[in-house]
Amino acid sequence: MNLSLLIIIIYLLLVLGLGFWANLLLKKTGEDYFVASRTIGPFLLLMSLFGTNMTTFAILGSSGEAYHEGIGVFGLMASISALVMPCIFFFVGTRVWALGKRFGYLTQVQYFRERWGSDRLGLLLFAVLIALLVPYLLIGVMAGGIIIQNLTGGPAEGLPQWIGSVGISGVVLGYVFLGGLRGTAWANAFQTLVFMTLGALAFFAVVNDLGGLRTAMGAVAEKFPHLLHRAGDGDAHPGMSPWLFLSYTFTPLSVGMFPHMFMHWLTARRMETFRTTLVFYPFCIAAVWLPSVLLGVIATADPAIPFLEGARSNSVLILLISNHASPLLAGLLGAGVLAAAMSSLDSQFLSAGTMFTHDIVIHYKFHDRLDEKTQVRLGRAFVSLIVVITLLLSFFTERSIFNLAVWSFAGFAGLFPVIVAALFWKRSTRYGALSSVLTVAIFWTYLFLQGWETRGYTVGGTGIMPVAVLVLASAVGMIVGSLLSSPPSDATLKKFFPGGKPSAAEVKT
Amino acid sequence: MKKTLSYVGLIVLYFLHQDFWFWNDGTLVFGVLPVGLVYHLGFCVAASLLLLSLIRNAWPDHLQVREEGEDSKE
After folding, report:
1. Which residues of B touch A221 (CB under 8 A)?
2. Could you give the number of structural domains in chain A?
3. Residue A99 falls within a domain, yes or no?
4. pLDDT digit string (tens) for chain B, length 74 residues
5. B52 touches chain A (CB under 8 A)
6. Helix (H, G, I), strand (E, B) or coil at A399
7. Residues A143, A148, A151, A153, Cα dihedral to 10°
8. B47, B52, B62: residue with CB nearest A499
9. Pairwise CB contact (< 8 Å): A90 & B63
10. Is residue A288 in a domain?
């Protein structure tokens, strides 16, 4: 058997073992299964939030995009995320944690439903969040197939992509079902350490084989100097426009509405637990994105790598590793990239199952007729169904991981005004929230149909990313819808803004 | 005052992300890293320092206090 494949199989079994171990320690209560009894400490919170958020988008997607667009990709996604994401944890995450602790929330829909007293809003949000989660899941599932195929001989001789996709989906489902959020948090922490360590190792191994960083970057400067800045060099490489760069800054807002991030925030033992994450998150982002972007750029000047067009550039990192590292190291590094894929898929699977169990089965009283075991089985069946749909889509999708992720993030970012209004705007109403969510659903679908086939699509060719339009339209929807409807009741305001009843003037403005 | 300064720092940092002054500059710093990349690495460090400042000067203690108050009633 191929040594790389053997290492990956051993790694997958190891991760599955973690799920079994977590299962042995599980307290067998819903609170423990879904939010680890809200007892996660600072280090585990940092690792699980970071591991969940850093998908293969950050490794395969970023290197594939840097292969075409150059070093600007780091500023486009990584450095702005290093600022915006921890700020969202600071302003939104801590407040969500406090609400979860007070009212026992497990999902976003539970909170929004109570905050604005609307069942319809809850159902709509459930459908929109699950629909947006599918392209995000697709990234991880596709990456599993790409990694295993390339490490076993490439598209011509290696294992078909679907085997890798099915394999990692099965393993992740296994440890999520066994260990719940505690198992997921452990697996995330373990896998985050694995992909950060092995990522650094991959970088040094590849760069060393290419004669050192100075030589590798010198080769890029000679052959493709336009990849070292953002201005491009004419029609063949138009570069990044300042408008594109600016409008991309809206993308990390998506983290405020990811269902899996919401669940991870709730796991913190205390509010102070967030502090370590806030300070170290920017460094973690830089540590993962820098080698990925540099390797993507360096690959352009590597004669051993053929020109990779479109979605084929997703494989550039794996090709570099296969060409410049021993099979043993290639297997370990492949396991590291798989770790990144799985550490996101697990939380996404768990959040989808939790939402279905709590927002549909329990909320609509199906649980009166079902015992607890059947409820859990139903939740698992729902997650399995979502995974099957994602797998089917992955067999027919030929898209760049970067582009897929950007569309998914755009939708979640478009919903960001909903959480901001819920937490900070007393005058916001259910009609404002409904209008905001519907605006995102309609605009996202329209823009997606317009731009899905076009690489680097911007709204009307203006250079502005769809995400900026979605966030602004959603905010307008929230404001107009709220101001045109009656203010929320005093009881609602007292419950969610208990720092004293707001004055009439405050409520009206 | 410190709280306000931290918030102003956040806004300033957001605008500093748009480094148009390095847009067309592919100079390799020490012959290794493009200057635009080095700038954004520095930006990540600045982001971490800003978060440290927010923790020290604008930590939402009122949420925690209220939480503890409620616990004690139970």
Report:
1. 26, 28
2. 1
3. yes
4. 889 999 999 999 999 999 999 998 989 999 899 999 999 999 999 999 999 999 999 998 887 644 444 443 32
5. yes
6. coil
7. -110
8. B62
9. no
10. yes
CATH of the domain at A372: 1.20.1730.10
Whether chain A has a CB inside 8 Å of the CB on B72: the answer is no
- Tell me if A23 is assigned to some domain: yes
Token pair 């592919």 is found at B26
CB proximity A282 to B under 8 Å? yes
Write out pLDDT tens, residues A397-447. 766 666 777 888 999 999 999 999 999 999 999 999 999 999 999 999 999
DSSP string, A229-293: SSS--SSSS----HHHHHHGGGGGGGGGT-HHHHHHHHTBSSGGGHHHHHHHHHHHHHHHHHHHH
What are the sequence ranges of the domains in chain B? Answer: 2-60
Provide the chain A residues 58-87 that lie in CB contact (below 8 A) with chain B. Answer: 71-72, 74-75, 78-80, 82-83, 86-87
Tokens of A238: 């138009």
**How many other C-beta atoms lie within 10 A of the C-beta of residue A83?**
26
**Which pair of tokens denotes residue A302?**
């590597």
Within 100-119 of A, beta carbons closer than 8 Å to B belong to: 101-102
